[in-house]
Specification:
Two copies of one chain form a homodimer. Chain A contains two helices and ten strands, in the order E-E-E-E-E-E-E-E-E-E-H-H. The first copy, chain A, is mostly beta strands and about 170 residues long. In chain A, the strands form two sheets. In chain A, strands 3-4-9-8-5-10 form a six-stranded antiparallel barrel. In chain A, strands 1-6-7 form a three-stranded antiparallel beta sheet, with no helix packed on it. In chain A, a hairpin with an 8-residue loop joins strand 6 and strand 7. The mean pLDDT of chain A is about 90. Strand 2 of chain A pairs antiparallel with strand 2 of chain B, so a sheet runs across the interface.
Chain lengths: ~170, ~170
Amino acid sequence: MADDDFGIRPGEIAVALPDRYDASLYFIGRIRTPWTSRDACPKNPRESDAVCTIEVDPRYAAALTGVDSCSHLLVLYWMDRSRRDLVIQVPRHYGEPRGTFALRSPARPNPIAASVATLVAVAGTRLSVVGLDCLDGTPLLDIKPYFASTDAYPQAVVGWHRARQG
Amino acid sequence: MADDDFGIRPGEIAVALPDRYDASLYFIGRIRTPWTSRDACPKNPRESDAVCTIEVDPRYAAALTGVDSCSHLLVLYWMDRSRRDLVIQVPRHYGEPRGTFALRSPARPNPIAASVATLVAVAGTRLSVVGLDCLDGTPLLDIKPYFASTDAYPQAVVGWHRARQG
């Protein structure tokens, strides 16, 4: 399996994607991380406490007004190095087939990642954060304030995952 | 102000967007809700307990395998009825200017909404959920399992918002 993961594993299922796209995105910045290969990336955002840097395009500098008052941010980014046509996947670290929408895998029809990051510091258009797990240079799509009142569900359960853990 | 909100309010600031897009999206389904005008939508996802229906394109049916074991889902959808060039906004219910990235407003360079929904039932490619606040017919972008271990930060604070309340 190449590092860019465009292969398909036994048990995985791909579908034909639509002939055309429906909407388009701007990359609004880049995420700088210590990880330059997929194998080096943490398996999930809480596995590392490395400080990463979100570099926002200066065009949007004013849009950061007030962000420094947030303890946590919901960061959306574009995982552009995965295939988009898999509906059933066999993640390496699970080894069993799962539906794409039951996984956080980067391989999905719209490879948008959503991670909660802890904000450490803001310096102009550079945000220092902890809690990202992506490759260095990953394109940034959005930054949102994380509201505990609507975004935090500590009691949430992912049944298939809990069953694995016993 | 028209219901589609393409106007600009006093105190709001727009910037020139890039000349071209960087990536493209597929709409993978539609969200059915009771709300057919923006004014009728709840102000946030916990303001209503209405059951909404996520209709997934049958092309992706297999990708739902295992989703029924999730108590909560992170749902991404496309808020295609907002302008994308605002960096400073004056939300109607706050009345003060804020940076776009400090707000959950639909007006943003990439109008991707992220909401946590409680899963009520799965019937084929139709998911019944509680916790969405969008217009009927909103395009669906992604469904992800919500992991309390990485997605729930009950202690998170949005400083500018708390100051308003307190």
